[in-house]
Amino acid sequence: MSTPRSSSEGGECTGTVTVGYAGSLTACRYGRAVEMPAELRSELDAMFQSGGLGGMLCFRLVDWAPGRAVVELQPTAAIANITGSVHGGVLYAVADSAFEVACNSYGRVCVALDVSVHHASAAPLGQSVVAEAVEVSRSARVASYRITATGADGDIRAWYQATAYRTTRWHLGEERWPDPWRAAH
């Protein structure tokens, strides 16, 4: 993952696709930096924070930017498997929550096509797990993501490869998104 290399006025970017972190809402595509409007970013954030399954399981959206999301789980005994560690389905759910935010973070409505998982190590109860989804590639209709679930000790608990279908619909209404943003994303 690289950071945008552009001027604050939306200048030229180097590389094909670069995505900003925390404070940066710049996404570069086709060599041009395009800023996400702050009002739309705020409304997307409210939508992402609104709960759903992640709210029920007490996930916390830590950070997101176009093409990227970080979600944290604080595991309790209520989500244990029969061996006393975090249930794999819950690990999948936290990874899927990060994937959901990352692929929808451009404002386009996206849905999962497939997700594959590799469980690398048991996630102990009481130790936080952070799932980070990062865009690997994106075209007009399909985007791929790598999601890594990591324990507080730095050990990878599981990693996922996910593919999203990018619909032609837009969250918050297509007409609200500026033409340059829609063209780039």
Describe the overall structure.
The protein is of the alpha+beta class. It folds into two domains: 1-35, no CATH class; 38-174, Hotdog Thioesterase (Thiol Ester Dehydrase, Chain A, Roll). It is 21% helix and 38% strand. It has four helices and nine strands, in the order βββααββαββββα. The longest helix has 17 residues, at 88-104. The protein is elongated, with a radius of gyration of 17 Å. The protein starts with 16 loop residues before the first strand and ends with a helix. The model is unreliable at 1-24 (pLDDT under 50).
Approximate helicity band: 10-25%
Main sheet properties = 6 strands, antiparallel
> What's the order of the H and E elements?
EEEHHEEHEEEEH
Q: What gap, in angstroms, lies between the N and C termini?
A: 17 Å
Query: How many individual helices?
Result: 4
Mean pLDDT score:
85
The best one-word shape is elongated
CATH superfamily of the largest domain: Hotdog Thioesterase
Number of domains: 2
Poorly predicted ranges: 1-24
What structural category do the secondary elements indicate? alpha+beta
Number of β-strand runs: 9
In the sheet with the most strands, the strands line up as: 4-5-7-8-9-6
Question: Beta-strand level of the residues, as a percent range?
Answer: 35-45%
CATH architecture of the largest domain: Roll
| CA gyration radius, whole angstroms | 17 Å
CATH top level assignment of the largest domain: Alpha Beta
Predict the CATH topology of the largest domain.
Answer: Thiol Ester Dehydrase, Chain A
